Structure formats: structure tokens, C-alpha cells
């Protein structure tokens, strides 16, 4: 909270909009809170400034892209600047095989380990939520996820 005014000012100098800067600082705080996950960080203030800077630069780029699209003249010109919604066929083919291998590797895991991995990696569940769902301790949930990830990496030959 002590750094909030300075962070807002920092974001404002990058993007040039005080109201949007406040939104960025709020978003940065949410990301910081999630990333720190109740851990003590050595340079929490520096980390927070870095998050604000990255969000501000992303916002500035997005705004510039929008300006280019609106100045493009017509819809056909503007559409060039939009990223593709769907991956190209080559990417689909490449990752489809990997996805099939991932499903097979997960199927080899014991049920509790598979559920913990899927909840954490695909569902974004926190360790505490997984532990509650499986009626196990948080350290055991962490161990199950680590074992599952290690197994999948080995099967997919990832480093």
C-alpha cells in the first residue's frame, strides 16, 4: 500500500493515462499476490515494479496496435494486424501427437496422482484445493503433482 502512489505514477509515465495506470497497478497487485503465494520475496518492491512495467508496456503496445487498425482505413486493412484466432494446421498436427502422448502418460499414473496433476496443470487448482478434494495433506498433494509431472516429462522425453 505504501508503494501504490509511486507505482501509479510510474505506470502513468509509461502509458500517459492516470486512470488506466490505477487499473494496471491493481492488476499488478493481483498478479504479485498470486505469484508470491504467501512467500517472502527478497525484493518484493522491485518485483512489483517489474510487473507494473511489463503490464504498462503490454498496454502501450496494444493501444498502438488498436490505433494502427483504426487508422488503416477499412476493415480489410485492419484485419491484417489481428493475430490469428486458430493455430495453423502444422501446429495442430505437431501438438496433436504430443497431446495424445500426454494423455497416454497420464493414463499410466495412479488415479490419485493423475487427478492431482490434471487439477493443478489443466484446471489451475491450488495445492490446498487439491488436498481438500482428495482428502490428503498439502505436502502429499505437492508430491503427487511432482511425481506425475516427472512421469509425463519422462514419457514425452522433455528435459
Walk me through this protein's architecture.
By secondary structure, the chain is an all-alpha fold. Helix content is 77%, strand content 0%. Helix 6 packs across helix 8. The longest helix is centred in the middle third of the chain and has 28 residues. It is flat.
Terminal CA distance: 40 Å
Apparent shape: flat
Number of helices: 8
Report the radius of gyration as a whole number of Å: 22 Å
Low-pLDDT residue intervals, each spanning 5 or more residues: none
| Overall number of strands | 0
- Structural class of the helices, strands and pairings? mainly alpha
The ordered H/E elements are HHHHHHHH
**Main sheet specs:** none
Provide the domain count. 2
**Which percent range fits the helix content?**
over 70%
Give the DSSP E fraction (strand runs of 2 or more residues). Answer: under 5%
Mean pLDDT: 81
Amino acid at each position: 500500500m505504501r508503494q501504490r502512489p509511486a507505482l501509479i505514477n510510474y505506470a502513468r509515465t509509461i502509458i500517459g493515462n492516470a486512470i488506466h495506470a490505477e487499473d494496471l497497478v491493481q492488476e499488478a497487485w493481483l498478479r504479485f499476490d498470486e505469484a508470491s503465494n504467501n512467500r517472502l520475496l527478497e525484493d518484493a518492491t522491485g518485483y512489483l515494479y517489474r510487473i507494473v512495467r511489463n503490464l504498462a508496456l503490454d498496454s502501450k503496445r496494444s493501444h498502438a496496435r488498436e490505433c494502427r487498425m483504426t487508422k488503416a482505413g477499412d476493415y480489410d486493412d485492419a484485419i491484417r494486424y489481428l493475430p490469428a484466432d486458430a493455430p495453423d494446421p502444422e501446429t495442430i498436427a505437431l501438438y496433436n501427437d504430443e497431446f495424445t502422448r500426454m494423455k497416454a502418460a497420464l493414463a499410466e499414473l495412479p488415479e490419485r496422482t493423475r487427478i492431482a496433476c490434471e487439477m493443478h496443470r489443466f484446471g489451475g487448482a491450488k495445492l490446498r484445493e487439491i488436498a481438500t478434494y482428495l482428502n490428503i495433506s498439502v505436502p502429499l498433494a505437492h508430491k503427487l503433482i511432482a511425481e506425475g509431472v516427472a512421469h509425463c516429462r519422462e514419457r514425452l522425453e522433455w528435459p
